[in-house]
Design a protein that fits this description.
This protein has a single domain, classed as Rossmann fold (3-Layer(aba) Sandwich), CATH 3.40.50.1360. The chain is 36% helix and 18% strand. α7 links the parallel β9 and β10. It has 230 residues and is of the alpha/beta class. The strands form two sheets. The protein has a seven-stranded parallel beta sheet with strand order 1-10-9-6-2-3-5, with helices on both faces. A three-stranded antiparallel beta sheet has the order 4-8-7, with no helix packed on it. It binds 2-phosphoglycolic acid (PGA). The site of 2-phosphoglycolic acid has 8 residues, from loops. 2-phosphoglycolic acid binds next to loops.
Length: 230
């Protein structure tokens, strides 16, 4: 049994974004070559927008960092509006001025790319309403590898909400093994609908049924807003 983790609580999503941007800014200042696993989803978008403002103001430089894709739907074209690769590029890579990226094409290619990077320095993660990390759907043990899989009904539903249309039933995700090996993990959680799953992840038993519960094995920082915790 690993210890309980207490999040840093921010008043609202905007304050969360400031605190998360502070954390990420400090990391890239300490290591300009930071390799970063980059979640999409709604939660980190205000954080990425705040980082973009800081880059624009000349306060921080991401040009030597590497952005690594966390997950993707299967069977979509490059110009599909639902492409998570494009979402990462639009929200993070381009506005922050990164020039190095790792795209998630296949488990073999991805594993080799992570090895070439010398591992991940930082994983920026959201929390699935069902406890997933990336598309490591429940149940996912801590050694679950990078793989293709079928999305659960809960994820099909929550992901449909991003686009207003259905998403593919299949996906590829960075493995739990890759995520849990990151030197730092930053979990961002916003909104009352995440409260139950956040408490399960940080206070409940470690279990494949809540893949995020294994994050307590890592050098974990959790930033949540009040609605998601109290
Ligand atoms: P959200 O997604 O940030 O849009 O809530 C998180 C997730 O499903 O991993």
């Amino acid at each position: 049994m690993v210890g309980e983790v207490t999040p840093t609580i921010q008043a609202d999503a905007e304050q969360l974004a400031q605190a998360a941007a502070d954390f990420i800014t400090a990391q890239v200042r300490a290591n300009p070559h930071l390799s970063i696993l980059v979640a999409t989803g709604n939660t980190p978008m205000p954080t990425y927008a705040e980082l973009a403002r800081r880059v624009e103001a000349g306060d921080v430089d991401f040009s030597r960092a590497t952005a690594v894709q966390l997950d993707e739907y299967l069977g979509i074209e490059d110009d599909d509006p639902r492409s998570l690769w494009n979402w990462m590029r639009r929200s993070f890579v381009e506005p922050l001025g990164l020039t190095r990226t790792v795209r998630l094409h296949s488990p073999g290619q991805f594993g080799a790319a992570i090895r070439d990077l010398g591992g991940l320095d930082l994983a920026i993660l959201g929390l699935g309403p069902n406890g997933h990390l990336g598309f490591n759907e429940p149940p996912s043990p801590p050694d679950a590898p990078t793989r293709t899989l079928a999305l659960t009904p809960a994820s099909l539903e929550s992901n449909r909400a991003y686009w207003g249309v259905a998403v593919p039933a299949g996906a590829i995700t960075a493995g739990m093994d890759v995520i849990l090996a990151a030197r730092q993990t930053l979990l961002l959680v916003s909104g009352a609908h995440k409260r139950g799953v956040l408490h399960a992840a940080l206070r409940g038993p470690e279990t494949p049924e809540v893949p995020a519960s294994f994050l307590r094995r890592t050098a974990l920082t959790v930033i949540a807003d009040e609605a998601a915790w109290t």
